[in-house]
Design a protein that fits this description.
Layout (H helix, E strand, L loop, with lengths): L11 H12 L1 H17 L10 H4 L4 H7 L4 H7 L5 E5 L7 H10 L4 E5 L19 H4 L7 H13 L1
Parallel strand pairs: 1-2
Length: 157
């Protein structure tokens, strides 16, 4: 497994392996092996039940196609306007990751939004109390700054 400093500038198989390894090194080795098999021969003989949601048969074609791309390489190619949002309370992707992705395309516009989570909703000021709730409560509104900035970006581009 490749050690990474910034998630957003690596293919998704590397990102998933790193994220899972942080929680469980044993499961991290398993997912690394499974993703490698999927990437190299496009099939898996079996998947442990606790990884089925990530690697169930219906999602495998998507995962195979997704693993082909390196975000930093792809964003460098873009000539169109690019907008990157990052929440300070995102528990999946860090601010440094968004900054690295932004650095790959100097024309990209980066917004780091205080208190916003990975699902574009607001957590509490300490990023803990309400963060997980934002994943499960569809009634929570999108962050207002996110909404304002994306509408402005669309209207001006």
């Amino acid at each position: 497994m490749q050690k990474i400093k910034s998630f957003s500038c690596y293919p998704i198989d590397v990102i998933i392996t790193e994220q899972i390894t942080k929680q469980s090194p044993v499961v991290g080795k398993q997912i690394d092996s499974l993703l490698h098999a999927l990437k190299t021969n496009n099939k898996l003989d079996s998947v442990p039940p606790y990884l089925f949601s990530l690697l169930r048969p219906s999602i495998r074609p998507y995962m195979i196609s997704w693993m082909k791309y390196d975000p930093a390489t792809e964003i460098k190619k873009l000539k169109c306007p690019v907008l990157i949002f990052q929440g300070s309370c995102d528990i999946q992707v860090k601010v440094a990751d968004a900054e690295s992705l932004s650095a790959a395309n100097k024309k990209a516009k980066l917004f780091i939004i205080e208190g916003m989570t990975h699902v574009l909703k607001d957590a509490e000021a300490n990023c803990n109390d309400k963060n997980l709730k934002t994943y499960h409560d569809p009634g929570l509104p999108l962050n207002t700054q996110f909404t304002k900035e994306i509408v402005s970006f669309i209207q001006t581009n």
